[in-house]
Write the structure tokens for this entry.
Amino acid sequence: MGSRAVEFYFLHQSKPPIVAKNLIKVIKWIDLCEIHPGKLKQEIVMLDLDHHQTEHIFRASGLKDAVMKYGQEMSVSPSSVRFDLLTKCTPLFERMRSLAADHFAPDADHIISLVNDYERAITDLANLSSGQITEDHRDGEGYCPVCGTRITRVSARVAGFSDIIVCRTCSEPYMEFQIMLAAPEAFATMFI
Ligand SMILES: [Zn+2]
């Protein structure tokens, strides 16, 4: 998101989110290609690494991403594996709520309500088909036994990272809250 887009977003909010104080503008120079040599100036907005709030935003990002990865694995797993993954998500949601209460006032109530919705969506994903799913698509092959969508594999293309294997359709409900929690009036992780 460029700085103009961020400013537009802030202008149209009823109250400026607390994270606005934590953002700095950075000028970046982009090297143009050989056909049009030269440099292009671009303004971007990023978190001020010296600001005291930044470490909490990074912590929130780690918790959110861990839940999202469990959600992705759940969406292609048999029910027994989904239940195991759900138990791993429970303490992460707890930590998100504590983090919001301790460090994200005055947006804490809004964030906690989103975290509750996120947890409900992940619990629903674990319980799909009344907990009777036996098919295992963690190899990235085939079709989802719940919704019939072809399983998606996104190549990581980076050494040390594994491919993302997911049912995109079954993941839509929880991804909505993953995205909403990234907004400036929530955990503001979109600026990382
Ligand atoms: Zn599905």
Q: What stands out?
A: The first strand starts at residue 23 and ends at 31. Residues 144, 146-147, 149, 167, 169-170 surround zinc ion (CB under 6 Å). The helical segments are 3-11, 54-74, 79-103, 108-126, 168-180.
